[in-house]
């Protein structure tokens, strides 16, 4: 193995151990929680290393980079998660390669995603991104919890989109456990209406334990596996 592969393997072991420990702590079976490795800013060669190490799910947040990497790694059979801000004029193109679109936060995205899925000839899994920011916060990304019922219904009614659950990012400046506890309530309400929408994508390198304690089924981990990203984002 190259030095880079050794480094990634060691980091991946440590993250898998953190997930196992957090599951034990929460009294959950460890196969309750899936790892999505966030590969943004890292090259396709790292994605190959990850696939060799048994990673099945990878996440990207910028369309052009994601599209190119997914094409370069098409032979690996990975599930590609799109986790970034989504422009409606790019949504159809994202649905052409993303198996899961985690960042659906407004109704305007639903039509283009559905058209993209039809062009691809495959179903696309959808998570609704919900904002955990206090109402009125600037730069909110994610739908307000009050807007979820309508958004969920639109996804369910769209051809070839499968409503699978929710995604969220803990806001800066708040204990992630407090934020993820609110998320657990929002999820409970969604699942009451949509019993199949049980996925909860929450938790990153810094707060995956808090997310698992609050019911996350998917954690999105970048830097703890691949190292620090370049400063420019
Ligand atoms: C970059 C990113 C992550 C991974 O963050 P790390 O702190 O590097 O683990 C998770 N979720 C989203 C939405 C991201 O953009």
UniProtKB/TrEMBL annotation:
Q: Which UniProt keywords apply?
A: Pyridoxal phosphate
Domain Alanine racemase N-terminal: from-to ranges: 11-230
- Spell out which residues are annotated as carrying N6-(pyridoxal phosphate)lysine: 40
- Cofactors that this protein relies on: pyridoxal 5'-phosphate
Show the GO MF annotations.
pyridoxal phosphate binding
Top-level taxon in the UniProt lineage: Bacteria
List, alphabetically, the Pfam families matched: Ala_racemase_N (PF01168)
Q: Which CDD domains match?
A: PLPDE_III_YBL036c_like
Q: What PROSITE patterns does the record tag this protein with?
A: UPF0001
The text of the family note is: Belongs to the pyridoxal phosphate-binding protein YggS/PROSC family.
What is the role of this chain?
A: Pyridoxal 5'-phosphate (PLP)-binding protein, which is involved in PLP homeostasis.
The entry's protein name is Pyridoxal phosphate homeostasis protein
Q: Which organism is it from?
A: Nocardioides ganghwensis
């Amino acid at each position: 193995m190259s030095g880079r592969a050794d480094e990634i393997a060691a980091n991946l072991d440590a993250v898998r151990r953190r997930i196992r420990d957090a599951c034990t702590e929460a009294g959950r079976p460890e196969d309750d929680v899936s790892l999505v490795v966030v590969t943004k800013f890292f090259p396709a060669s790292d994605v190959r290393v990850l696939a060799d190490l048994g990673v099945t799910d990878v996440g990207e947040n910028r369309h052009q980079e994601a599209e190119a990497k997914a094409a370069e790694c098409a032979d690996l059979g990975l599930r590609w998660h799109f986790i970034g801000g989504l422009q409606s004029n790019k949504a159809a193109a994202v649905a052409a390669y993303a198996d899961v679109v985690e960042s659906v936060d407004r109704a305007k995205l639903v039509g283009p995603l559905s058209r993209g899925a039809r062009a691809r000839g495959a179903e696309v899994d959808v998570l609704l991104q919900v904002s955990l920011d206090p109402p009125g916060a600037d730069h909110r990304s994610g739908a307000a919890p009050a807007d979820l019922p309508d958004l969920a219904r639109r996804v369910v009614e769209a051809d070839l989109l499968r409503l699978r659950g929710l995604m969220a990012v803990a806001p800066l400046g708040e204990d992630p456990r407090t934020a993820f506890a609110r998320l657990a309530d929002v999820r409970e309400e969604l699942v009451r209406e949509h019993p199949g929408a049980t996925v909860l994508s929450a938790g990153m390198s810094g707060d995956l334990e808090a997310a698992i304690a609050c019911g996350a089924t998917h954690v999105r981990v970048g830097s703890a596996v691949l190292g620090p990203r370049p400063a420019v984002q």
